[in-house]
Amino acid sequence: MRKTLLTQFVLMLMLGAGIAQTEKKSSPTKLSPASFDRYLSIGGGTSWSVINNRKETRGQYKMGFNGHAAWHTSPWFSVSADYTWFLPHHSSPAFNDIKSWNSELNGNLSMAIGQSDLLFKTMFGLSYMEWEGTYVGPSLNDNNKYYYGLLVEQSWVGANLGCGLSYSINRNLAATFDYRLRFASEKRDLFSISDTGFFLSLDWKFRGPENLETDQTGKKRKPAKNRHGRIYKWLKRGV
User: Fold this and answer.
1) pTM for this one?
2) How far is CA 59 from CA 54, 92, 157, 196, 197, in A?
């Protein structure tokens, strides 16, 4: 009787161990948490801007070329430096042969739109602008101190606000579209919008090879994620 009970107990242990082993094999694979690798990006493109609202005719957009570099510290934040050079142009009435350039330092906050490769971003920062034009009259503000042929020069530090969209074409290439406002004060007057601009550019991301995650079996496995690096959970087996 005792031998029979002992035999049944051993068989139950062996059966339980087999079931546990089977359940262990069928359990879902767990991936280690993904880490974000900081990277540098550079880009360039075109700009259409209303320059210097105090001297040029408002609503007249002028073409320029923009170059920028950004240091991405996380999937949602980067610091960028911009330089925009505007083509020489005229603003009727008042000024001819206008030359201008603008530099910026911005912080950029990004937010993914759903599970797509499209990002919505906002930006804030500082800018420095140089502007000069030859006065030909009549002045926009009836300033009597100007005379025909006078070279008028301006420079100021302003604040930036803006928003935009960024689309990842692949892991290293992205297209961006921005709308920016620059605020400045001239000779301690009212702090107001000095210029506005639209920017369209392509950015190249200097990113290393994509990291493969190691599961519990020691195998390398590519995690499911979009081009911005967001990780999606694997579905459990059998679901």
Assistant:
1) 0.70
2) 12, 12, 22, 9, 11
**CA angle, residues 158, 46, 82, in degrees to nearest 5:** 40
Cis before 223 (ω within 30): no
d(CA 41, CA 34): 21
b/e for 78-105, b at 16 or more Cβ within 10 A?
Answer: bebebebebeebbbeebbeebebebebe
CA separation for the pair 27, 20 (Å, rounded)? 11
CB 29 within 8 A of CB 216: yes
Residue 226 has a CB neighbour count (10 Å cut-off) of 15
Distance CA 80, CA 125 (A): 9
Residues 163, 121 contacting (CB under 8 angstroms)? yes
Give the pLDDT means over successive 10-residue stretches in the chain (239 positions).
Answer: 52 51 43 70 95 80 95 94 95 88 96 89 94 83 75 90 94 94 76 88 88 58 54 48
Is the bond leading into 93 cis (omega within 30 degrees of zero)?
A: yes
